[in-house]
Amino acid sequence: MVALGVVGSGIMGSGIAECAALAGHEVVLRSRQQATADATMAALEKSLNRRVDKGKLSAEERDAALGRVTATSELDALARCDLVIESVVEDLAVKKHLFSDLDRLCPDPTILASNTSTLPVIEMAMETGRPEQVCGIHFFNPATVMDLVELVRPLTVSDGTMSTARAFVESCGKRAVEVADRAGFVVNALLFPYLNNAIRLLELGVASKEDIDTAMQGACGFPMGPFALLDLVGLDTSLAILEALYHEYRDPNYAPAPLLRRMVSAEQLGRKSGRGFYDYHRH
Ligand code: CAA
Fold first, then answer.
1. Which of the residues 51, 141, 219, 246 has the least number of beta carbons within 10 Å of its own beta carbon?
2. What is the pTM of this model?
3. What is the pLDDT of residue 283?
4. 3-state secondary structure string, the chain?
5. Domain extents in the chain
6. Among 51, 116, 145, which is best to mutate for testing ligand 1, by the most ligand atoms less than 8 A from CB?
């Protein structure tokens, strides 16, 4: 069992914490503010309660999982972790700063990982004095449901670090694929041109968003259509991913559709803000 640190208690951070706690790991979940940390604990309890209600978890297992998680606003609390996964905003400057802080705080053996979906892990690794112990561990949304994790191998990482990361991911019941440190890795490099082009079809008036979603579900067997998925991922995150992909490749397929940018400006961010391509207030 590892002592896991998770930095950032957004959709992904809290999902990763839940997976790890259910797998028996001790988790320190760090939010910037204690109020957010407390709210995340309450949300975690609610999510675990849902599992109990569905008969998938006993009340004792729920209590044990909850007991393994400490939510805090103190970055110093991460100093006792064997592995720290950051899942803060997709902003390279913020992440680099965080890696430099974590490097100073954490003991020599600690592995530092990023849950970034597009940013260069090497740039985070080079902020530390331990670039051989830095890799990407990229979970998918919702983290408790999707069973795949991309393990990202920056140029500097050691084989030992990658094996430890793989062992951790597999201990959480996930499958791992190893990918190079290249924007979008495998999944987002393929997924985001598709999502972006769905928005362009909508802009062109080719079909309604409902019909585009229905088409892709019905014809390709996807569990949700592109607009439902964009709302799940978050439109701000989707825009940041497309911008990072476009920055790296200058491929027009990655240039964010104007409507996506306008919706983010309008704070229509998807499920998390109650409104994106669809309205979630009613549900
Ligand atoms: N959070 C946590 N759990 C959720 C959830 C959520 N947002 N949505 C659904 N679930 C759980 C449900 O509780 C249910 O669990 P049980 O089977 O244990 O009861 C299970 O998922 C199935 O849910 P439902 O039957 O209600 O609904 P569904 O069959 O339509 O599945 C879904 C929902 C799992 C989200 C499915 O639609 C799906 O797989 N969608 C595609 C998601 C996807 O592509 N994710 C990758 C996004 S890209 C990304 O993450 C990369 C990045 O870097 C941005």
1. 219
2. 0.94
3. 54
4. CCEEEEECCCHHHHHHHHHHHHCCCEEEEECCCHHHHHHHHHHHHHHHHHHHHCCCCCHHHHHHHHHCEEEECCHHHHHHCCEEEECCCCCHHHHHHHHHHHHHHCCCCCEEEECCCCCCHHHHHCCCCCHHHEEEEECCCCCCCCCEEEEEECCCCCHHHHHHHHHHHHHCCCEEEEEECCCCCCHHHHHHHHHHHHHHHHHHCCCCHHHHHHHHHHHHCCCCCHHHHHHHHCHHHHHHHHHHHHHHHCCHHHCCCHHHHHHHHCCCCEHHHCECCCECCCC
5. 3-180, 187-265
6. 145
